[in-house]
Every structure is written in structure tokens, then in C-alpha cells.
Design brief:
The complex is a heterodimer of chains A (460) and B (461). Chain A is α/β, with parallel strands linked by helices. Chain A is 24% helix and 25% strand. Chain A is globular. Chain A starts with 11 loop residues before the first strand and ends with a helix. The N terminus of chain A is likely disordered. Chain B is mainly alpha-helical. Helix content of chain B is 56%, strand content 5%. Chain B contains 19 helices and six strands. In chain B, helix 1 packs antiparallel against helix 2, helix 2 packs parallel to helix 6 and helix 7 packs across helix 11. The radius of gyration of chain B is 24 Å and the shape is globular. The chains are: A alpha/beta (460), B mainly alpha (461).
Chain lengths: 460, 461
């Protein structure tokens, strides 16, 4: 018997962090058991969708609208929420100490404390008006500063940077966007797609400066930012500097603990740390052995959710490895939606080929990457929606590019009556290879259903 | 987690861009048109064709100019910025004023048409102002219903144009809106008015029982039966719609073929009501109330109709303690007038645009039952792409918690869904798609697709 165990085999499970990873774990455990579940967060009482914070600022939704569950949900499912900050973990005593002085004991501990924003080591970084965007508190602080922002400078061309730019646009606050690279997010997006987004950012009257870096932040007498200096020596007057140069696991507070930590908390494929009964999931976890082609830390909504499911099952006695499967992700850059399935590299490796179609107005594109021996490897979509399960099946079951192109309509997921682009992609393939491919099907829900439920041979 | 515990403060905007000068001018033009109409109504001399024309033109120009200035210059995409910060669309002062004005208008319209100027001979007031138009169209003086019909049709057309610009990037939205505009202009307004001009029995060909609750009332049946060939045709058409056309279309496309493509109530909700769609209540409690209420109204209208038919064929109006005449009067008063009109439209700025459709419409209830159990329609969720952001639920005018299904990777089959497609449009991750398919029709109410976890890891069925 583990010491401290409650009557029967009911365990006390404590989860630090109420983001998507922690909450998914809590729900999974509740689905499978009667264990006592406690979730502790200092950020907010209730779970909210972090990716939707921008929409609260933009007035699309209220804070309560981005909370996926109504307040009664937690009581009904006997998930105990504590709105407090964990200051210390006594691993040997299996006990947590909270900022309020309260102590909480656990039998199993899940650390899902998320990320922290990266910062720069440059003069003036401590000025007021320099803010990252990650937490609810960040959003509130940006909101309270907004009335006095005549120009905002955003540093860092990633997902959060462009979100912040869109947020300021909604309130008609002029934005200068400094990006270190030669195109937006080109560490992830292939060149053509990155160029599309450059173009789209400028369409929204944003002063986009590429190949630009920040070297100094200037502040006024009150210590508030009043300008930034770039690597080219240019000085840009502004009242706000948004630092969106990525995130790292939020582990500073665990540095002196017996937990093995590299960049994140090291975990095995069952998401176990080096300590018994302590797990780490989501953004703060670093996999010792990630699956081939995957990174040890992936600060993504979907991976956090999958880790939560896996750890929840494992704790409830159904040992489940974290196996994320085919990579996927999505985002929205102003008005252009982005979806990716499978392996899409920024630079095409020598053993891969690509077929790429782009609309005239540069608002839509479809890219399919495939191995030189023919198997499809990945899909990159801008402004076009594809069906995840179909793409996944094509990739996992090694469909050839020609088989895929013949039935590309199966993947179409745009609203009814939308234009179809499958034949345009086939034309691109023809230009590339000289091969003419004819469509084999008209797309209907029934055909998709049939395809997904049939073995490969029948479909091809 | 360096921050200490902070209480979550609701995000109030300290400032946001006001209307542009052009938009302000458009609003002034529109309101001027409205005022000209009201002032012109007050005196016999001022009730001229010219004043009516000026009034309606100003209103039209105001709405169209406002829409053009709002959307035309913007890049194609979702236009929900600042919705929850504007007084009119966040139950602020302007929302309450608008609600009071519309509610007041409906009360006059239904219960005090005399106050709008309806007289046995020589109309005055607002009704009098519309007399020339009515005489021109159908050789008869106006009634309050003619005035209402003109304004209602104008609202759908003008705000339909606004919607077409707002959603110009989405072909489904455009076609659907053109459809409701067409059905309102032709089927609800022009055809019935022209039939009246020809002294024929008139009917809105798309207005089906039980939404059209008086279809089986004695006076309507008599009117149709005595209306010659056309009358008999209309009677047959009405019955055909109820028992054949509607079930077939609902089987293939879900109730959307009616509720968001054809229906007049839906037409107004989707156009003039669009800025208020996010105000619908998404709580589980509201869903419970909805199911009780809407199905009660359905039961009620079935009872009323059966009793009225019983009276029609037997001449006997009393069945046990129920009197068919009293009952149908009550239904007309409480459901037909107060619920569908006063509350249904008057409460747009407070409870969203589909209060009637969701909580009261017996037609929606019937179509909903069929949609849930015997239709090919569903909203498909795209794998595991949902980020639980809540845009779909927030902008669902029927108050469906779409996210609840989407984040589980489950297809959405809900009786109340009118298939407007806005959830799919506002989704920032391309997760939702309205689709029709027959393969899984027998298991459509069970959990079709839920995230599964087993030895292979996390995956979908």
C-alpha cells in the first residue's frame, strides 16, 4: 500500500496546471475511475482555451465564452479546482505547498504547468510596456495598456506575434512587425507559403520589417517604453513592445528539485519523470525518446491533449504510451487558415518532391510532398480545408502521389458550394511530371465514409 | 508561473475605434428616412407618395451605405471584431432601446392597429402613408399587415445585402442568403399581393402548417375551397408540402432547406438578426427549457388543429372541457402574436435572433425530430483539429454548444440545428463542415466518432 492512500483503491491525484494537457488528464481519469482529482492553477479558476485568448481581446468572445465547460461541470464530475500558486513540491513527502500556505498531499502528481515566454537579454527589456502574450494576465495587461498605445512594435515572427498583430489591428492600433527571418515563420513554412503570409500581413497595413532584430528598448523618465532600436540602427517610436519570440517549458521553479530536467521535464514514452508517481505532460515535458521525425518538446494544443489522454489512462491502470501518430497542426494568419498533416519541411530534402498549387490572389495554396519513390508524406494547406482522417490514411498507408491525386476530392473540407481546387493540383502535377491524372470520383460524404472504412486495396 | 495568484478580471475595452465618418453619415441618413416616414404619417397633407418614397429610399441608402463602408474595403474574412464591446450587440443601452422600439411596434401592430392609423374607411397615420403603394399594387387600401409586409421584406433585402458583403468569401452563405431574399420577395410578398389584386385567394406558398397555424382553421379552409381552382390548388399544395415535400427535403438536406434557406422568420433572423446571433443562451439549462417549450407548442398546435377540424366537420365546438374557438384564440394570441412576433423579433438585441425558432416554432420542432432521427444531414468534425476556442458555440444562433461535440471529435446531430453554417465559417481551424450522407443513418444519434485510446495510442475510430 502506498502511504496516504485513501480507502479502497481511490488515489489522490493532483494536477498542476489547468491548461488543455492537465484538464484532459483530469477528464480522462474521471472517465475511467473514482480517484480524487485536484487541479491547481494560479492563472485562472476555470480551464479556458489559451489559443482563443486573442478573440477575447478582439471582442469576438467574452472570457466565459472561451471556457469549454460551464462552472457546474467541475462539481458534477468531482474535479476539485484550487485557484492558487504552487510554490514548492516536497517530493519525498508527496506534498505541495501553495502560496496561501495551504498544503496538498498526493499519491500521483501530474505536472502540466505549460510554458513561459522567451525574453531577450538587451538593454531596456525591463521597461514597462514590454509584454509577452501567453497568459490571461498578459492579455489583461495588454488590454489595460491599449488605450495609450499609439504604435505597437511586435518582435518575433511566429504564431503569437501574428496573433498580437491581428489583435492590435482589431482596435486600429498601428503595428510595426519585426521579424528576424526573411519571411514570416519560415522556420516552419516553406518559402512560397511564408511569402503569401508576408503579403497578407502587409495587406492589413502592418509595417512589416523583415531581416530585422531588436538590439535595444528605449524608455522614458517613467520607465515606460518609448521606442526600440533595430540592428540596422533604425529607431522606431512606440508605446508598446510585444515580445513574441517563442516559449520554453515553465520549469525555472523546479530547478532545485530532484526532477531530472533538461530544457523541459524529462519523461519517458509513458510520460513518467525520473521520480516515482510523478508525471509531466504538455508544454513543460521533454520526451527522452521522441518518435522519429518529432521534436522532444512540442508546445502544441493537440500534443498536450494527447499526452493528457495517455497519462490519464496509464494512471487508471491501462498503461498507454504517448504515441502522437501523424503530425498535424493548424493556425490562422489574419484571414488565411493553415492546416498541416504529416511531414512538411521548409527545405525540400533531396529524397522528396513537392506538388504545389497557389491561387491567383495568393490567398490559397495546396502543397503535397511525396517521396521520390512515390509515397505521399505531407499536406500543407493555406486557405483551404482538408479532411484530417483522409490525409492521415493516405500517409500512414503509404498511398502513392498518383493514387492520392486521383481521389483528392475525398480530402476536400471547404463549405458546400465552395470552389474545388483538386483539378488545379492535378494540373500542377502534370506540368511538373507530364503525367495526366484523371479524377476517379465525385466527392460525397458516403464515399469518404467508405474510403475510411475500407482496406487500402479497395480504394486504390 | 512567476506571477502570483490574480483574480480574473473581465476584459473591458477602454477604447476602441468609433464608427468612421462615413458610417456615421449613413446612420444619420437611415434615421432621417425613418423620421421622415414617421412625421409624414402624422398629417393628411404630408402622406404623399413622394414622402413615402423619400422615406423608404433614405432608409435603404442608409443601410446599404453603412454595409458597404463596413465591409467593402476589408479583406475577405470573418468580421466579428468588437462585437462584444459595442452597445448595440452586447446588451448595452442601444440594445435595450432597440428592443423596446421593436417590441412597441409589434404591440401596436398586433393589438392596436388603430394607433398605426388603420380605419374602416380612410386610413390615417402610418397605414395611411402606405395607402398609395397598396392601391398601386393591389387596388386596395393598405392594412397594418401590408405595412408590416413591406417593412419586413425591406429588412430582409437590405440586411441581406449587408450579409452578402460580410460573408462574400463564403459561397454557402451567399447562396443561402440570396435564397431567403428571393423567397421573401416573391413568395411571401409579391405573389400573395398580386393574387389579392386579382381577387384570388392568396397564400404564402412556402408558409407551412404548423408555422402557419391557421391553415386548417375553418375560415381559411372555406376561403380556399370557395376560391375556385386556384383555391383548391393552394389547399392541395399546402397539404402536399406538409406530408410529402417537407419530409423528403428534410431527409436529404436536414431542416436547413426550410429554416435557413426558405422560411420568412428564419430569413429575418439570418439578415436583420445576424448582428445578434451570439446573444443566444448556450447553457445546458437553456437547452432543457428549449426542449420542453418547443415540443409543448407543437403538442398544443396539434391539439388546437384537431379540435378546429373536429368543429369544422361536426359543427360541435366543445370536446370535454376544451372549446375549439377559445383555444385557437388563445393560441393565436399567446403563440401566434406574442411569442413569434413581440418576443420573437422584439428580443433580437437581448436574446439573439432565433428566440422564436428555438423555443417556440412548432414547425422547427417537427423538422427537428425528423432531422435528429431520419435525415442525412449532420455537421462533420474534422479529426482532432478542434482547439476548443468557442467561436462555433458563441456564434450559433440556436444556442447549440457546438464546441462540446467538436472538441470530442464527434459529428453534430442536433434537432435544433438550422444549418446556417456560421459555426463552420467562424471556425479558425477548419474543423466543421455541413454534410449530407446516408451511410451511417441508423447510428447517427450515437457517438459516431469519439477520440479513442488503446494500445495503439490515441486515435480516432
Amino acid at each position: 500500500m502506498t502511504p496516504g492512500r485513501d480507502s479502497g483503491n481511490q488515489l489522490r491525484i493532483v494536477i498542476i496546471g489547468n491548461g488543455i494537457a492537465g484538464i484532459t488528464a483530469a477528464r480522462q481519469i474521471r472517465k475511467m475511475s473514482d480517484h480524487a482529482i485536484t487541479v491547481i492553477s494560479s492563472e485562472s479558476k476555470y480551464f479556458f482555451s489559451r489559443t482563443a485568448l486573442m478573440y477575447v481581446y478582439m471582442g469576438h468572445m467574452r472570457q466565459k465564452d472561451i471556457e469549454p465547460y460551464e462552472p457546474w461541470f467541475w462539481d458534477k464530475n468531482k474535479i476539485n479546482l484550487i485557484h492558487d500558486h504552487v510554490v514548492q513540491i516536497l517530493f519525498d513527502k508527496k506534498r505541495l505547498i501553495l502560496a496561501s500556505g495551504q498544503e496538498v498531499s498526493y499519491d500521483k502528481l501530474i505536472i502540466a504547468c505549460g510554458s513561459d515566454s522567451n525574453t531577450l537579454n538587451i538593454p531596456g527589456i525591463d521597461a514597462s510596456g514590454v509584454n509577452a502574450l501567453y497568459s490571461l494576465q498578459d492579455l489583461q495587461s495588454i488590454n489595460s495598456m491599449s488605450p495609450n498605445i499609439k504604435r505597437a512594435v511586435i518582435i518575433g515572427g511566429g504564431l503569437i506575434g501574428i496573433e498580437l498583430a491581428e489583435m492590435f489591428c482589431s482596435r486600429k492600433i498601428p503595428v510595426t512587425f519585426l521579424i528576424r527571418e526573411s519571411a514570416f515563420w519560415n522556420i516552419v513554412l516553406p518559402k512560397e507559403e511564408a511569402e503569401m503570409i508576408n503579403h497578407h500581413i502587409r495587406e492589413h497595413h502592418i509595417d512589416l520589417k523583415l531581416n530585422s532584430e531588436l538590439i535595444e528598448i528605449k524608455k522614458n523618465m517613467e520607465g515606460h517604453v518609448n521606442g526600440v532600436i533595430t540592428i540596422d540602427g533604425e529607431e522606431i517610436a512606440c508605446d508598446f513592445a510585444g515580445l513574441t519570440i517563442g516559449v520554453h517549458p515553465n520549469i525555472d521553479w523546479l530547478k532545485d528539485s530532484p526532477l531530472e530536467i533538461n530544457e523541459g521535464i524529462l519523461v519517458d514514452t509513458y510520460l513518467r519523470t525520473n521520480l516515482d508517481d510523478v508525471y509531466a505532460i504538455g508544454d513543460c515535458a521533454e520526451l527522452r525518446q521522441p518518435s522519429p521525425g518529432r521534436k522532444p518538446i512540442e508546445a502544441i494544443w493537440y500534443t498536450g491533449r494527447m499526452m493528457g489522454e495517455a497519462v490519464g489512462s496509464s494512471i487508471c491502470g491501462k498503461l498507454s504510451a504517448y504515441q502522437p501518430g501523424i503530425f498535424y497542426n493548424s493556425a490562422k494568419f489574419f484571414d488565411i487558415e493553415y492546416q498541416v498533416y504529416g511531414d512538411i519541411q521548409t527545405q525540400l530534402p533531396p529524397n522528396q518532391k513537392t506538388v504545389f498549387w497557389q491561387s491567383q490572389d495568393q490567398k490559397k495554396s495546396i502543397r503535397i510532398n511525396y517521396a521520390t519513390d512515390g509515397n505521399v508524406l505531407g499536406f500543407n494547406l493555406m486557405g483551404v480545408r482538408f479532411r484530417q482522417e483522409v490525409c492521415e490514411k493516405w500517409i500512414t498507408q503509404k498511398y502513392s502521389i498518383e493514387e492520392v491525386l486521383q481521389s483528392l476530392e475525398l480530402a476536400e473540407f471547404d463549405p458546400e458550394f465552395s470552389e474545388h481546387y483538386s483539378s488545379s493540383v492535378r494540373e500542377q502535377y502534370q506540368l511538373l511530371t507530364g503525367q495526366t491524372i484523371h479524377s476517379k470520383m465525385i466527392h460525397t460524404y458516403n464515399q469518404v465514409h467508405q474510403f475510411l472504412n475500407s482496406p487500402k486495396t479497395l480504394a486504390s | 508561473m512567476n506571477q502570483t495568484v490574480q483574480k480574473s478580471i473581465s476584459l473591458t475595452p477602454h477604447h476602441f475605434p468609433d464608427l468612421t465618418l462615413g458610417q456615421k453619415i449613413s446612420v444619420v441618413i437611415g434615421i432621417t428616412g425613418l423620421m421622415i416616414g414617421i412625421i409624414a404619417s402624422t398629417s393628411t397633407e404630408a402622406r404623399t407618395v413622394a414622402n413615402l418614397a423619400i422615406s423608404l429610399s433614405f432608409i435603404s441608402i442608409g443601410v446599404i451605405a453603412y454595409s458597404w463602408l463596413s465591409y467593402k474595403k476589408e479583406s475577405d474574412g470573418i468580421k466579428n471584431n468588437l462585437v462584444w464591446f459595442k452597445s448595440l450587440t452586447s446588451r448595452g443601452l442601444w440594445a435595450w432601446i432597440t428592443a423596446l422600439v421593436i417590441t412597441g411596434f409589434y404591440i401596436l401592430l398586433y393589438f392596436f392597429p388603430g394607433a398605426l392609423g388603420l380605419n374602416k374607411i380612410n386610413n390615417t397615420g402610418l397605414v395611411g402613408l402606405f395607402d398609395p403603394l397598396s392601391v398601386w399594387i393591389k387596388h386596395k387600401p393598405a392594412t397594418q399587415w401590408f405595412v408590416y409586409g413591406v417593412l419586413y421584406t425591406m429588412a430582409i433585402l437590405l440586411f441581406g445585402i449587408k450579409f452578402l458583403w460580410k460573408y462574400r468569401h463564403n459561397q454557402y452563405q451567399r447562396l443561402r442568403t440570396l435564397s431567403v431574399m428571393f423567397f421573401q420577395l416573391c413568395f411571401a410578398f409579391t405573389i400573395p399581393e398580386l393574387l389579392e389584386r386579382l381577387n384570388q385567394p392568396s397564400m404564402d406558398l412556402k408558409n407551412m402548417w404548423p408555422l402557419n397555424y391557421y391553415f386548417f382553421f375553418d375560415w381559411n379552409l372555406d376561403k380556399l375551397i370557395q376560391g375556385g381552382t386556384l383555391g383548391i390548388f393552394l389547399l392541395g399544395w399546402g397539404i402536399l408540402m406538409i406530408f410529402i415535400i417537407s419530409p423528403i427535403l428534410t431527409y436529404f438536406y436536414g431542416k436547413r432547406w426550410y429554416c435557413s434557406w426558405v422560411c420568412g422568420c428564419g430569413g429575418l433572423a439570418e439578415t436583420a438578426g445576424d448582428p445578434f446571433r451570439h446573444l443566444s443562451d448556450k447553457t445546458l439549462k437553456a437547452w432543457k427549457v428549449e426542449r420542453w417549450l418547443v415540443h409543448s407548442v407543437l403538442v398544443l398546435i396539434v391539439i388546437v388543429t384537431l379540435l378546429v377540424l373536429y368543429t369544422y366537420f361536426t359543427g360541435n365546438s366543445q370536446v370535454l372541457f376544451l372549446n375549439s374557438f377559445t383555444l385557437r384564440e388563445w393560441y393565436g394570441f399567446f403563440i401566434g402574436s406574442i411569442f413569434s412576433g413581440v418576443i420573437g423579433v422584439g428580443f433580437y438585441p437581448l436574446m439573439g435572433s432565433r428566440v422564436w425558432c428555438r423555443f417556440g416554432c412548432p414547425m422547427a420542432a417537427i423538422l427537428g425530430i425528423q432531422q435528429k432521427f431520419f435525415s442525412r444531414f449532420r455537421i462533420t468534425t474534422n479529426g482532432g483539429q478542434c482547439i476548443s476556442c468557442g467561436n462555433c458555440s458563441t456564434y450559433c444562433e440556436m444556442g447549440i454548444d457546438v464546441r462540446h461535440y467538436a472538441q470530442r471529435g464527434q459529428n453534430i446531430v442536433r434537432a435544433s440545428c438550422v444549418g446556417c453554417g456560421i459555426c463552420a465559417a467562424v471556425c479558425p481551424r477548419g474543423v466543421l463542415k455541413l454534410e449530407n450522407g446516408s451511410v451511417d443513418i441508423h447510428q447517427r444519434t450515437s457517438d459516431l466518432k469519439v477520440l479513442k485510446l488503446d494500445q495503439k495510442g490515441v486515435h480516432f475510430d
